[in-house]
Protein: TetR/AcrR family transcriptional regulator
Organism: Clostridium rhizosphaerae
Amino acid sequence: MKKRPEITEQTKQNLLDAFWSLYCENRIEKVTIKDITNKAGYNRGTFYEYFEDVYDVLEHIENSLIPTLDELPPVFTPNITLGMPLEQFFELYKQNSKYYSVLLGEKGDPSFAGKLKNTIKPIIMQVFEDMPNVDKRELDYILEYTLSAMIGIMSYWFTQEDAIPNDKLHELIKRLTEQGIMKQLPL
């Protein structure tokens, strides 16, 4: 007897949702298959039809949140200056904020920020591929710094109850990127 794809997909989604609600409250080490199946209303055998273990569920969710090369915005260099597509990064964060705020937070997966950076960085590096005077190793460090800062500040922004408005944060990141940190400090 063949299973119907829509029911199969719904069962998988129910297991993912059950895992996510538990993961929002507990570290991954505290989430058990029994907890997931009890919450979703299935047995362990059903769980194992879709996932190997709780880490497989987390990886499935994370992979669905990492943008593919087709989903990332194009990066261009107007006047040889890297234009960071801040609006697109904000949109990506807003679309996935319920996940990003947890995954990049205290209870989240420390490797998730690295997965995001490792997806975005090669696209930006590609822009400089044919430029002869660019030190690629130094550029790698610059992008690591910039992307870490952007992911960090946006993660922080999502956790704040009295967060500054989106346009103010966008303006702040732009100023920090273009003028540097020291010029923003009240010294």
About this structure: The chain is about 65% helix and 0% strand.
